[in-house]
Amino acid sequence: MLEKGLVKVVEIIDINHTGQGVAKINNFVVFVSGTISGDKVKIKITDIKKNYATGEILSIIKPSEFRTASPCTYFQQCGGCQLMHMDYKEQLKYKRNRVISELRRARVNFHEETVNKTIGMEDPYRYRNKTTFSVTEKNNEIQIGPYEQGTYNTVDISSCLIQSKAADEAVTSFKNLMKKYNIRAYDMKTKKGIVRNIVIRNNRKGELMLIIVTTSESFQNKELLVNELSFIPNITTIVQNINNKNTNLSMGIKNITLYGEGTITDTIDDLSFTISPETFFQINPIQTEKLYQTAIEYAHLDKDDICFDLYCGIGTISLMAAKKAKKVFGIEIVNRSIINARENAKKNNISNLEFYAGKAEELLPQLNKQNIKADVIILDPPRKGCEKEVIDTIISMSPKRLVYVSCNPSTLARDIKLLESGGYMLKKVQPLDQFPWTVHVETVCLMSRK
Questions:
Q1: Domain check: are 109 and 170 in the same one?
Q2: What is the pTM for the complete model shown?
């Protein structure tokens, strides 16, 4: 029987969805952070739950053949990347296996060869076009960085290997200017201070949008801070976001443009997109092109097809689909995204689209009742997956093809099983590594009527 403090030597046989190694002691599952499949480690049991226990590494007795030295100084502390100690090619295999495992768990009817090998990156560094860092103080020193693994403590970093070097420089400059102008970081415990977070968005040209998240609109030396920030190379716009709520959410609702246009423009394929501070845009531009090209290929649209793009964001997939389809209807809950989507359609001279702001589970049934039907539906929902009303309406509408883009294999498998029960068959599955060095995997699935 397991007890807290028990020391054991175990073999790591798998990795779970959070990146923890999986071992078994007397057939009881034990999760161990910092390990990968093939490691032989000495651990100490730290906690015991009903169905599993957790342990911490005391020593690595025999490392896995796939274990590598992490190139990141902050890997042991930072919660951003979970797999920087794992061979990259092995990460791609792990992500394909995650998708297969979730499909099996949901009892989806498919053959393993239906799931293609994960599409990876040639150079899996410096790929992020958006990073969010917390801003805190420790011993009267400003700290800026990601959260420590499993906590809300800030890891003070000088560089992040998955964001651009220009973003690194902007973070360092911002920290120095906070010190120079005595601008205080917000303290969640005392509820005092001004700056809570900074968000950096960049495009392929290397232009940066700096978003400063503060508790109030006015603060000491604001104009001086913004003036100096505006001279930093690559920063083309600065936005202040107001977040005065007692929440762990990074940003609030109100944005104030302090410098520049308040937006940046980026490209996918030959299309140009306006991006606002709060709108969703895939964070890995190189992989995003592969992702969306796969989605459009699977959709197999022709000039007579009506296509619905559900959870359409700023219209990225919608515009690509509109180049091939007769008409595209996009639905998105974030109103600012729909405004950007309409701007993007106009900017790219594409007119065969209609965008609707609202909940997909409300608007899709309304379109169906108006007898506006889709030949092809593309879905790219948030991590929680599709609402029941969306699945039910899709089944009722009965389009010939469905293309499901997902960032969560668990909810993807759940929804595919529901669609399978409604008369659809899983035909193709393409995992893609949108987030190297993390456990996350993006997946594109093609379903057609049985």
A1: no
A2: 0.93
Q: Please indicate, yes or no, if residue 2 is contained in any of the structural domains.
A: no
Residue from 284, 406, 281 nearest 340 by CA: 281
Task: Identify whether 428 is part of a domain.
Answer: yes
CA distance from start to end of the chain: 50
Give catalytic residues, as residue numbers: 407
Among 236, 268, 300, the domain boundary falls at: 268
Whether 145 and 249 share a structural domain: yes
> Which runs of consecutive H residues, i.e. helices, occur in 324-422?
335-347, 360-369, 388-397, 409-421
Tokens for 331?
A: 């639905």
What pLDDT sits at residue 141? 94
Residue 193's domain spans which residues? 130-268
Give the pairing type, strands 141-145 and 53-62. unpaired
* pLDDT-based confidence at residue 149 (cuts at 50, 70, 90): confident
For tokens 């594409």, the residue is 350
Count of beta carbons in the 10 Å neighbourhood of residue 380: 24
The encoded tokens of residue 21 equal 């190694």
Does 311 lie in the same domain as 199?
no
Are 216 and 309 contained in the same domain? no
Tens of pLDDT, residues 321-333 = 999 999 999 999 9
Contact criterion met (CB below 8 Å) for 31 and 7:
no
Report how far residue 164's alpha carbon sits from residue 283's, in angstroms, rounded to the nearest whole number: 12
Closest CA to 443 of 116, 140, 82: 116
- As given in the structure block, the two tokens for residue 236 are 């083309």
Return the pLDDT at 246. Answer: 84
Residues 170 and 54 in one domain: no
**Residue 77, CA distances (Å) to 82, 196, 198, 218 in order:** 10, 20, 20, 34
Q: How many separate domains does the chain show?
A: 3
Distance CA 213, CA 193 (A): 12
Between CA 312 and CA 301 the distance in angstroms is 17
Residue 190 shares a structural domain with residue 294: no
Q: Which two tokens stand for residue 71?
A: 């190139």
Q: Which amino acid is at 327?
A: K
Place of tokens 């302090």: 258
